[in-house]
Amino acid sequence: MTHRYKVVGIVKQPNTPLGLTVEQDQNGNVIVARVLAGSTIDEENLMHPGDVILEVNGVNVGSAEELTEIVSHSESTLQFRIASKNDSDQILKPQQYYVRALFNYNPEEDSLLPCQELGLEFKTGDILQIVDQQDPIWWQAKKVGEDSKIGLIPSPDLEERRKAYVPPEADFVHKIGICGTRIARRKRKKMYQSKSNVEFDKADLFFYEEVTKMHPFKRRTLALIGPQGVGRRTLKGRLINSNPDKFAGVIPVTSRPQREYEDNGKNYWFLDQEDMEKQIKQHKFIEYGEHNGNLYGTSLDSIRNVINEGKMCVLDCSPSALKILHNSSEFMPYVIFVAAPGMEKLKTLYDYGRCNGYSSRTLTFDRQSSIRYSSRRAKTLESLASLYEDDDFKKTLEESSCLQRMYEKYIDTVIVNEDMDETFLQIVEVLETLANQDQWVPVNWVY
Q: Domain Guanylate kinase-like, which positions (predicted)?
């Protein structure tokens, strides 16, 4: 490949990164690895990935370390002599799209980041615009709705390796001193696209979710999740009773024998054990569990029936059901996590629910589903009656924190239920707001 030599000048700003990182190839050439979008180098089209840096201020550059030394001791102006890529090489505009962050990231705590000043801090739930993902290790992004600063964020590939506890010395990322230079082996680029979601899903590693902005619309389901005894059943019933034309619940399915005074389809849909087990194997239930030898569950068709009536289906489901709801474009859930308040407030909520007919003594299948509480000792109805004891309230608080952390990637809003009336009003207000503002939703809901 032929190269064209050129000289470019850059004014060095105090405490401002140059906006490029470099790597060293097998032949010892110092090559531009990336140019930060929006930097002076990028805006003035001075350098491009793949350019070879030969000299800085008339001094030959033989390694990344030498470049670090020269730049750090230079005054206000830097003059680079560069061997450019072939003029016929086409520089493609990077694909730009949006993601929702599913983890917190602080560049100051990342020892692998080539230059901490170039890193972009973000928190779970932040919407990021990905402006460049040509580097398989460090993507370039900026936060939506804030200033236009563009910074480096770890790619899913890097985070997957990090979460798998790959030792730094065995990885392909090595930090070098200059802001920023690094030495790294080339790695095949792994694009993050919606069609790749299944691959990441299987590994249970979630870092970013591709999203798109939609105009105001009504969500099809409302999922109220949270720890046992926090008042979700009370809130669900109150919401449905407040506007039966707008909200509706589902009728659970059970394999227990139908009693003489019961009507099929009123409190339960009754199926024999064999038919229900068959439908479970066919994945027709969003959740199910066993109690006293009988199966109880919520069928997907029952949710579809409510949606087809033009109503929002209100569920106080187990968190394990969120995966199915979230990954399907037909359910489009809005998820509210009802968090436990302090001990005294929690006792008040318990008394409120008991006085209004929502005692934990009448909990249905989803309260003691073996799926939902797989990590805890199965609770019997007798042990549930001891909820009023302090130890059980403490467990509820611990469960609240644990569930919120585990299912944070699915949660849209968190409401601490310190007062049942206030929490109900907050839920109503949130749902009304949805109908009047643009929403960031998973891209698979649209495409």
A: 219-432
